[in-house]
Amino acid sequence: MRAHSSDPHKLAGRxxxxxxxxxxxxxxxxxxxLQPQDILIDIGCGDGxxxxxxxxVASRIGTVGSTDExxxxxxxxxxxxxxxxxxxxxxxxxxSATKIVCNGVLLYMQSTDEVEQALSEIKRIAxxxxxxxxxxxxxxxxxxEYKMYIxxxxxxxxxFLLRNHGLRTFLGMCRKLIMSLFGQDQVVLNSAGxxxxxxxNFIALAERHGLRLxxxxxxxxxxxxxxxxxxxxxxxxxxxx
Length: 241
Description:
The chain is of the alpha/beta class and 241 residues long. The protein folds into two domains: 2-141 and 195-240, Rossmann fold, CATH 3.40.50; 149-181, no CATH class. The protein is built from eight helices and seven strands; from the N terminus they run H-E-H-E-H-E-E-H-E-H-H-H-H-E-E. A hairpin with a 5-residue loop joins strand 6 (212-222) and strand 7 (228-240). The longest helix is centred in the N-terminal third of the chain and has 15 residues, at 18-32. The protein starts with 17 loop residues before the first helix and ends with a strand.
């Protein structure tokens, strides 16, 4: 659905918040310290912005989860290589990357087993001593903390909003649902869970899969006033192979 939008930034998963995407991208690139000889791979590259801004490296490769996304990115950025594959099964050569980014991806996985598969794949494609950024791993269940609905029932969604967010939010969703019947809006029900882990547990998990921790820190984002601030729940990690 996002791949067929007229706005390629939809692929980044931050609808209408391009400034946030630019901010996060700049932080990652600052930490990566890219060099001309680097082979950069961005797993789950969204709208490809990080790769587009990584000029001067030897090679840039981005992966996305569907062929539709891949076709859109190839059309808009023909000088960058894009591949359609999941983080749990990367169609990339072993020991091929010197710098790897996997930001805002693992939290969408539905089990620790899937996260372990992704970490194994990251290790596999990394050259010895490769620098690896794994970002936006929540330390708590954000859906529960922010009272977000999980399920596949419209009535369940409405009841959840009325009970947890009040009449105004309930009526706003009713209006959106009515508009969707006439094709003027879209409502997407989220029936999937979210992966979350304490820093200690996530570091131990990554180390069991051959990644050496260099550092970790709170993810930086924008607060309600539009100013840079530490995330309440999310952490970013930098590893070496």
